[in-house]
Amino acid sequence: MNHLSNNYSSPDHGIEAQRSVFERNFGRDPGDFAFNDTKNLVVRYLRDRRLNKVMERLQHYLGQDLSQVSALCVCGGVGGEATYLRNAGIGEVTNTDFSENALGVCRARDPRLKTRLLNAETMDLENESFDVVLVQDGLHHLPRPVLGFNEMLRVARKAVIVLEPQSGWSGRILGREWEEHEGIFNYVFRWNADLLKSATRSQLLKRDLAFEVIRLWDHSGFVHRAVHPLGNGKLSLLAAKSIYAALTPLNFLGNQFIGMVFKS
Ligand SMILES: C[S@@+](CC[C@H](N)C(=O)[O-])C[C@H]1O[C@@H](n2cnc3c(N)ncnc32)[C@H](O)[C@@H]1O
Fold it and tell me: Potential cystine with 118: which of 96, 165, 185, 234 (Cβ 3.0-4.6 Å)?
């Protein structure tokens, strides 16, 4: 499969070709994924920044005691965001991915997490079987990203959370239109508030819903490189926070999208 073919020219829409590339990537030394558990102040801040914003809204809608809440992470890789949710107090967190190697690393690094091998476009799960369903940087890999989102809406009882690239000129300039790994391409699908609402309403119709959307700047690699000369301590953390504070008035032009749908 390459970017000159249509994804529907293969019976599985190119999923198996993508899966084998990710499988090889996640088959590397598990130590390569230790950054998910780092205590480095700067890396921790950069990795958790978007999820901290999500957690604040989840607590608003679901209450402070999250011990009875279940969460499903879609395209969750080795489980970085699943661990974050578990550390934040969510009682039961299941990490899913289509890479068995990724889930193996996940189980080794955080035995508290459950894992399920799933294709995000067709999840073999009951309707409304998890309170919260979250994806971070995953839908844009799918040949049919909105289908993946529709699956999340179906499986979620209370909330669907999407952390993905934001549509608009900033993403087009700073980001890539296409991602390529070992000759396999995916289009980088970007979201906005209208798309989130239209895709949700089409499926959930007139059901009582609340939507929340955050647009922001987020470029961990760039900020990490910028503050690196200051070391890995509090000074560097302060500098990273200052960069994002300075960008806050320009968040309406940001490159990242956080979309949240709360079912009543
Ligand atoms: C960029 S990584 C993001 C991993 C993780 N969410 C994170 O933020 O660190 C994309 C993930 O999506 C997974 N993925 C891609 N297509 C998938 C599909 N059709 N079904 C399930 N997982 C998929 C890949 O295996 C990979 O783990």
Answer: 96
Per cent of the chain over pLDDT 70 is: 98
Strands 70-74 and 114-117: unpaired
Tell me how far the alpha carbon of residue 99 lies from the centroid of ligand 1, in angstroms: 8
Q: Which tens digit of pLDDT belongs to each residue from 185-226? A: 999 999 999 999 999 999 999 999 999 999 999 999 999 999
- pLDDT for position 3: 57
CB 93 within 8 A of CB 115: no
Residue nearest to atom 23 of ligand 1 (CA): 75
**Ligand 1 center to 246 CA (angstroms):** 31
